[in-house]
Amino acid sequence: MQTIKRPVIQVSGVRKTYGQTVAVDEVSFEVEEGEIFGLIGPNGAGKTTTLECIEGLHTPDRGTISVLGLDPFRQVYKVQDRIGVQLQQAQLQKRIKVWEAVDLWASLYRKKAIDAEHLLQQLGLTDKRNAWFMNLSGGQKQRLFIALALINDPEVVFLDELTTGLDPQSRRAIWDLVRDIRDRGKTVFLTTHLMEEAERLCDRVAIIEHGRIIDIDKPERLIDRHCPERTVVLATDNTTAVAKGVLQG
Ligand SMILES: Nc1ncnc2c1ncn2[C@@H]1O[C@H](COP(=O)(O)OP(=O)(O)OP(=O)(O)O)[C@@H](O)[C@H]1O
Question: ABC transporter domain spans which residues (predicted)?
Fold first, then answer.
């Protein structure tokens, strides 16, 4: 018997503009409990704007968003307790130590945080607990961001361009960690511009271009439809092959 999964994120007819710029328009999709859902598109397509509307950081001009049955903008505190959000590099001080960052983040939540030492161990950061943030490698920084996003034991985790700039080995290590998060029953929503990342990691993917969703499906079906030749080109960071067609237009 097939289990019916409940949608944990519902986005319906969302439009968001910045002055004259229409960042996203008529965006609709649902993310099911326990899946890794990817939003893929080229630079400027509207990925971050969509993500930030779902996180409650922006209010859409039009349309509705529900996260775990709550309005992420009006019920921001209730939602924040139940979601984990990946930070961007510039949001951590250079001279904060790994354990201090984890301790600080744990203190921001009303509910009891999960065991920080265990979390650092799971993410391979125990040896780095006394290191300054600025002295971590790119992959270690991203692992720390994942640790911070998991500190409140969230039901839904949001990751924005998590592996951009990482070498292939670090990227694969991060993918394993993201799969672990899903396998522990959490829902993951991520943005990427790498088709390879979407293909290897995501259960379902939405393609966004010029602010509009053009297709949603399992990655292998999207590749069949949108890049049947599977022509590959080098991505902007020169490390990963991406499928032409989806990202190159
Ligand atoms: N705060 C802002 N003010 C004005 N325009 C913005 C703002 N944020 C985003 N935009 C514009 O909205 C559009 C969508 O941007 P967004 O950052 O959502 O795209 P993206 O797909 O995440 O791009 P990237 O992959 O480069 O991060 C772009 O044209 C961008 O220039």
Answer: 9-235
